């Protein structure tokens, strides 16, 4: 634009301002062009004319006219609204040369001027329309200049294109300097110090608020204060993480830190090292001057607060994660710590997932090394009790059951419970082979397992994220080591042979041995317990072994069989304290523990008493058989005595048959339905066992089956008591039967009608010496007296036998009535064995 045109334009603006000022009121006077009010109004007009603000609405003259008219009406100026409508109609109808084409622009300008004047008049103590603008230069007409002040967000900008950006940027810089007394470069440097846990000149750590703050006395814009506060969160998180690392490393090697905690500290320290590198780069950039916006194209290697917030966005996320880890892992250690970090790694954000995975790789390294060492070497390298397997010092026989156990509190969540149990068993098998079996073959099996699993036995071969490799190694190692352990137990220590020996001798399965032992030991065990010597019983045991097929067993088996005398009290006989025991020795005592041998002892005592009752009935039969034949000698007695004798003999024989039927069927049930069936099942389970736990479980099941079926279980206590009462009654019957036939033998001797065998003579003489026969009873009286005493003796014996029979019948009925209600099906089958003819069922029906 030419200089003359600019002058003309300035003159028009001045004339317009003068006219507007003269229209303030009817009595207004012309304004002096040199007055302050004129200069303020001129500046206001120049600001409006040089403004580049465009209306936000579309250029619609009718719409803006309607808006002005509605505004006037809403403010109670209806007359002004009508006048404006009439003027606008005339203004819009003007077309052609000399008319205004941009009608919308004129109306919009007038509306903005009106609104701006109203807002300026409403300000309190406002000296002018634009109180914050400086006075124009005297040469305002030379060219349009730019004011350094702002009003309502609009700046006076010259229409010179070269000065548009410079003026705007300069105005922004001046405004920023007025609002802040601290430069952004210093704030950036202080923030970087805070991110390293160091107090800066302005940004310092406040103990009250527990964080880095910019004091209120430091005047900065609110936006700057906000961004500084957000960036300083990183410094607070850094202090938290750094403090945890320092505290943990100062306490190490304390037990509450451990190797896993140390690994976590090392991993966090590595992350902080990367963080330090970033801060070093940022600090180098912060040394460069922050250019003006107009200079940004020429210089990009500088650092502002906004740029710093972008740089620190990712480190802030990582630092927050590390701070959360520090909070959660502060009281944890070992596997519990690794499990907690693993749960936090289950995140959908790839950044967080990869970061946590990188940490877990370092943290889980000691844990996986413990697993590798335990599975392949059987070594429990757990100084700080961090592993999920706990070991304790125990005796060799308790090593498998009590030496090691699973600590679920230290079990990481990425290792399942089944896998942990397999890991526990594998290392336990190695220790069992090494300590109890004195075997070294497990090392070769471990190397083969590592090779088959595709790993090595060296350190660091396992790591986090290699779950399939871990499971493969554990599975292969468990199979090979367990198989080697079972081979050692079966072949070297002959577990099956020892189980069979226990069945033969403690469970009385070797019939000829048991029968011979019972025959030769009967007289000794009939004596009081306190008069019996264990050495003599041991000699009798040796004799029974040498006189039976037991002599062909291995000497190692026979050496383990011993006589055991249980504690006795006053009145006990040898039968009450005698038992056999079997010495399992290491490592078989892992299976045949003291509690297990105590159960075998219970079974032996039951079977031994059953055999004793059977032997007693056999002895009674041996006594009854020859006397039944020689009873024909009593035909010369009186008829009533003969009938009495025959009735008594018949009663004794019938009662013996009932008892023998019960004992024989019970013994057959125990020997075949209980012992043999349980042994067969145990043999099959031994063949199918895959590890020592399976073998222990199979043997426990075998023993429990015998106890339950033999009426020795907890649920059969009442039945067991009833059975032992029956046994005592049968033994009492044996003593009565002996008395009966000894009395008959004495009577036969007195009458002289038959000769006695030498054995019977000796027995009679022994009873005479013992005083069991009444002095001068039968031998000193005549025939009449003999008949009287015989009748009285037979009557008493008949009464005793009737009493025993009645008691036996009552006890047997009570015993049989309990069998159908037993839960074990084999006990119900015992009822069928004892009452297969339904004799007892019909008898009970008759009574009811």
UniProtKB/TrEMBL annotation:
The keyword Lipid biosynthesis does not apply. It is found in: Cytoplasm, Cytoskeleton. Pfam families: GCP_C_terminal, GCP_N_terminal. Residues 756-781 are annotated as: Disordered. GO terms for molecular function: gamma-tubulin binding; microtubule minus-end binding. Coiled coil: none annotated. Residues 758-771 have a biased composition (Basic and acidic residues). One of its GO terms (cellular component) is gamma-tubulin complex. Its main location: cytoplasm. Residues 188-491 form the Gamma tubulin complex component protein N-terminal domain. This is Gamma-tubulin complex component. It comes from Trapa natans (Water chestnut).
């Amino acid at each position: 634009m030419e200089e003359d045109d600019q002058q003309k334009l300035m003159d028009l603006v001045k004339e317009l301002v003068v006219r507007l000022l003269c229209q303030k009121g009817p009595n207004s006077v012309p304004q002096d062009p040199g007055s302050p009010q004129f200069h303020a109004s001129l500046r206001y007009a120049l600001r409006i004319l040089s403004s580049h603000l465009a209306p936000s609405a579309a250029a619609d003259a009718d719409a803006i006219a309607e808006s002005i008219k509605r505004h006037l009406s809403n403010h109670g100026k209806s007359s002004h609204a009508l006048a404006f409508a009439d003027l606008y109609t005339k203004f819009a109808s003007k077309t052609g040369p000399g008319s205004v084409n941009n009608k919308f622009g004129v109306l919009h300008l007038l509306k903005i001027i009106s609104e701006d004047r109203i807002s300026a008049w409403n300000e309190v103590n406002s000296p002018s329309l634009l109180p914050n603008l400086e006075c124009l230069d005297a040469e305002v007409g030379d060219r349009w200049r730019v004011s350094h002040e702002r009003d309502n967000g609009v700046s006076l900008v010259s229409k010179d294109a070269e000065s548009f950006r410079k003026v705007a940027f300069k105005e922004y810089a001046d405004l920023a300097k007025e609002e802040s007394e601290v430069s952004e470069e210093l704030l950036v440097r202080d923030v970087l110090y805070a991110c390293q846990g160091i107090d800066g000149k302005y940004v310092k750590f406040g103990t009250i608020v527990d964080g880095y703050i910019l004091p209120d006395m430091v005047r900065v814009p609110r936006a700057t204060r906000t961004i500084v506060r957000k960036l300083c969160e990183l410094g607070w998180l850094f202090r938290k993480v750094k403090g945890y690392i320092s505290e943990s490393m100062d306490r190490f090697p304390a037990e509450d830190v451990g190797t896993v905690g140390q690994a976590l500290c090392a991993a966090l320290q590595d992350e902080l090292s990367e963080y330090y590198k970033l801060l070093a780069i940022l600090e180098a950039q912060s040394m460069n001057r922050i250019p003006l916006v107009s200079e940004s194209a020429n210089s990009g290697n500088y650092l502002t607060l906004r740029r710093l917030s972008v740089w620190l966005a990712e480190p802030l996320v990582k630092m927050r994660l590390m701070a959360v880890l520090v909070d959660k892992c502060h009281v944890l250690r070992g596997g519990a710590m690794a499990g907690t970090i693993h749960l936090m790694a289950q995140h959908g954000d790839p950044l967080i997932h990869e970061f946590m995975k990188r940490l877990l790789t370092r943290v889980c390294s000691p844990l996986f090394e413990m697993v590798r060492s335990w599975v392949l070497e059987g070594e429990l390298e757990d100084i700080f009790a961090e592993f999920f397997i706990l070991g304790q010092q125990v005796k060799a026989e308790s090593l498998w059951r009590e030496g090691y156990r699973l600590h679920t509190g230290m079990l990481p969540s990425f290792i399942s419970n089944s896998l942990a149990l397999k890991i526990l068993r594998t290392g336990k098998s190695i220790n069992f082979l090494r300590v109890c079996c004195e075997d070294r073959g497990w090392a070769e099996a471990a190397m083969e397992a590592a090779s088959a699993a595709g790993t090595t036995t060296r350190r660091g071969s396992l790591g986090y994220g290699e779950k399939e490799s871990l499971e493969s190694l554990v599975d292969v190692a468990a199979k090979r080591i367990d198989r080697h352990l079972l081979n050692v137990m079966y072949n070297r220590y002959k577990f099956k042979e020892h189980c069979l020996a226990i069945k033969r001798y403690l469970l009385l399965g070797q019939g000829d041995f048991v029968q011979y032992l019972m025959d030769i030991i009967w007289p000794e065990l009939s004596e009081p317990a306190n008069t019996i010597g264990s050495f003599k019983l041991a000699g009798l045991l040796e004799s029974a072994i040498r006189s039976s097929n037991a002599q062909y067993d291995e000497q190692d088996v026979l050496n383990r069989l011993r006589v055991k005398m249980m504690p006795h009290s006053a009145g006990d006989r040898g039968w009450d304290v005698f038992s056999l025991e079997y010495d399992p020795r290491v490592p078989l005592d892992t299976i045949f523990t003291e509690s297990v041998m105590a159960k075998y002892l219970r079974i032996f005592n039951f079977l031994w008493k059953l055999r004793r009752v059977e032997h007693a009935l056999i002895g009674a039969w041996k006594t009854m058989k020859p006397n039944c034949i020689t009873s024909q000698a009593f035909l010369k007695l009186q008829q009533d005595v003969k009938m009495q004798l025959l009735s008594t003999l018949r009663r004794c024989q019938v009662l013996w048959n009932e008892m023998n039927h019960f004992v024989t069927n019970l013994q057959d049930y125990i020997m075949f339905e209980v012992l043999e069936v349980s042994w067969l099942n145990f043999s099959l389970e031994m063949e199918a066992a895959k590890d020592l736990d399976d073998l222990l479980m199979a043997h426990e099941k075998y023993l429990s089956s015998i106890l339950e079926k033999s009426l020795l279980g907890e649920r059969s206590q009442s039945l067991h008591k009833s059975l032992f009462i029956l046994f005592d009654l049968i033994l009492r019957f044996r003593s009565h039967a002996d008395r009966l036939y000894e009395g008959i033998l004495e009577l036969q001797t007195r009458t002289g009608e038959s000769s006695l065998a030498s054995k019977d003579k000796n027995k009679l003489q022994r009873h005479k010496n013992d005083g069991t026969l009444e002095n001068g009873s039968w031998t000193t009286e005549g025939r009449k007296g003999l008949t009287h005493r015989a009748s009285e003796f037979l009557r008493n014996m008949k009464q005793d036998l009737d009493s025993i029979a009645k008691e036996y019948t009552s006890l047997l009925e009570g015993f049989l009535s309990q069998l159908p209600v037993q839960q074990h099906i084999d006990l119900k089958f015992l009822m069928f064995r004892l009452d297969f003819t339904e004799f007892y069922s019909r008898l009970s029906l008759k009574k009811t």
